[in-house]
Amino acid sequence: MIDNGMIYFARKGSETGLGDKICLYPSMANRHGFICGATGTGKTVTLKVLAESFSNMGVPVFVSDVKGDVAGLSKSGADSEKMQERIQRFEIADSFSYKNFPVTIYDVFAEKGIPLRTTVSEMGPQLLSTVLELTDTQSAVLSVVFKIADDQQMLLYDTKDIKAMLQYVADHSSEFEMEYGRIATQSVTAIIRAIVALESEGGDKFFGEPAININDFFSLNMDGQGMINILDAESLINSPRLYSTFMLYLLSELFEVLPEVGDLEKPKMVFFFDEAHLLFNNASKALLDKIEQVVKLIRSKGVSIFFVTQNPADIPDGVMAQLGNKIEHALRAYTPADQKALRAAAAAFRENPEFDTVELLQNLGTGEAIVSVLDEKGIPTIAEHAYILPPQSLMAAISDAERDALVKGSLLYHKYGQMIDSDSAYEFMQRLKAQEDKEAEKVEALKEEEKLAAKKEKERAKSTERIMKNTSGQIGREVGRVVGQAVLGKKGRTLGGQIGAEIGRNLMGTILKK
Question: What's the predicted TM-score (pTM) here?
Answer without folding.
Answer: 0.81
